[in-house]
Amino acid sequence: MGVGGPADFLATAGTTHELTEALRWAGDRGVDFRIIGSGANTIFTDEGFRGLIIINRASQIGEIQPLAEALDLQKEKEKHLLVSSSWCMEFDAPEPAADCSLWVESGVILEDLISWALERRLLGLEFYTGIPSTIGGALYSNIHFANHLIGPRVLCARVLDENLEERTLSQHELALGYDDSVFRRKPYIVLGAELALSSADERATDKAIKMRNAIFSAREKRYPSEKSCGSIFKNITSCRQKELGLAHKSAGWLIDQCGLKGRRAGDAVIWEGNANWILNTGDARFADIEALILLAREKVKERFGVELDLEVEIVR
């Protein structure tokens, strides 16, 4: 987003061991900390952060292992149906059945992992092309594209708990919902995850690569070149949409109906292309962005009676 003040301390962790050591350093000294991966879904305030920022670059990828029983991903996907119609529906496709697993550390960049997997004819992650995230961030928000959430492909995760003790969480314990996970409610830190992937022949892999390229091209055309952090608010639930009799559940649509596209505060602006995005068109400050966030919330609540929940993380 290009805003925010300085932190007191900064560390880059290249391994899980270094990540754990940095956390113990902060804990021993009573220093607050924050872990970031790509930082794409995070906004820092103008005052900065009084503590330690840890950039997670732990990026080891394990050996491909056979999966004893293929997961019924289609059934899981239907539980989390996200959209009925949108630009991304043309890229929707059935999830291939999983037949292998892969251990991945939390600092692996998702885009790099997609390329790594396709080179080895492993499918299932290509739907998330163009989403700036690490694996840790992907679990934190249960990233999604069209009708696909990454949650059903996560078999388990290794975490540090509130006492910095290692433990393994099952898929059920991870509580991976829409833009949600156990990590939003408990101070667990992702060290790595076991993912269920699908081995494929050359023809299926080529098809997946073509779809990935098409998604990437569509994203380039659809999204702005200016600095932003993506969607500011979560969409409302289908139940809430039905209850209110609204045409859409999109937060961007709700904000647009309030006539806020193009509204400015300093160099921050609510994007004309999607009102759920705020752009930094120059030298915006966090205060400018916060003013637009508060304005959008106020107007949507006033018109629709809906309290919009933040999707982005604001670090104070």
Number of strands: 16
Number of helices: 9
End-to-end distance, in Å? 15 Å
Average pLDDT over all residues: 90
Largest β-sheet summary: 6 strands, antiparallel
| Total separate domains | 3
Instruction: Find the CATH topology of the largest domain.
Output: Uridine Diphospho-n-acetylenolpyruvylglucosamine Reductase, domain 3
| Radius of gyration computed on alpha carbons | 20 Å
Summary, kept brief:
With 316 residues, this protein is an alpha+beta fold.
Walkthrough of the structure:
With 316 residues, this protein is an alpha+beta fold. It has three domains: 7-56, Uridine Diphospho-n-acetylenolpyruvylglucosamine Reductase, domain 2 (2-Layer Sandwich), CATH 3.30.43.10; 65-222, Uridine Diphospho-n-acetylenolpyruvylglucosamine Reductase, domain 3, CATH 3.30.465.10; 238-315, Uridine Diphospho-n-acetylenolpyruvylglucosamine Reductase, domain 1. It is 30% helix and 22% strand. Strands 5, 6, 7, 10, 11 and 12 form a six-stranded antiparallel β-sheet that branches. β10 and β11 form a beta hairpin. The radius of gyration is 20 Å and the shape is globular.
